[in-house]
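re: that chain from earlier
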Amino acid sequence: MFLRTQMTGKRTYLVLVESERVDGKIKQRVLHRLGRLALMQASGQLDAVISSLGRFSTKLAVLGVIIIALARPKFCCSQAMSGSRRKLDSVTSEAAMRACGLACA
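^ sequence. v structure.
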């Protein structure tokens, strides 16, 4: 499952697509049309959708901690993780601390 753009006339839409094999060939099936890409970008809806989806990704949570630590060197990783909206499990927390260890030193 992934997002892609779809042109209809002069308008570009953002669509959620699923790939499936039909008669030995890969076909893409549109699951949902999210909206016009330009309008979603202008209104901030696209950023909101991406941010909302990021809540379910452990990898993005770790990346967020690393980015905060690198952007603010005096701000320790443990502070970045405690201020996170999403609680990280112990394995993820340890991985984040190791990954941004240089910035926290």
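The mean pLDDT is 75.
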